[in-house]
Design goal:
The chain is α+β, with helices and mostly antiparallel strands. It contains 4 helices and 3 strands. The chain has a 3-stranded antiparallel β-sheet with strand order 1-3-2, with helices on both faces. It is globular and about 35 Å long. The two termini are about 20 Å apart.
């Protein structure tokens, strides 16, 4: 089970409405539990995000790294890492 650090949890809690029509977590504890339940992935950089989507079989042909960064399931973290939450 992946541990999600404070940064991941706070960004997801703050920005969850980008991905969902209503809040799925109201507290840090609920956010962490939700991330664990949906097996969210933390990537070191946008190139890792691209590799993740390729591995998952997503059709990302023709998408730039900027396009990937704008996907609703991709959350940019202040540290430069990315959180991928597949709903």
């Amino acid at each position: 089970m992946q541990q999600y650090d404070e940064e991941c949890i706070e960004v997801f809690l703050r920005d969850q409405l980008k991905l969902f029509p209503e809040e799925v977590a109201a507290s840090k504890e609920e956010a962490e539990e939700f991330l664990e339940d949906c097996m969210a992935v933390v990537c070191k950089n946008i190139k890792e995000v691209k590799a993740y989507f390729k591995e998952e079989g997503a059709d990302i042909s023709g998408m730039s790294l900027g396009d990937l960064e704008e996907q609703e399931e991709v959350f940019a973290l202040p540290s430069g890492r990315y959180l991928i939450v597949e709903a």
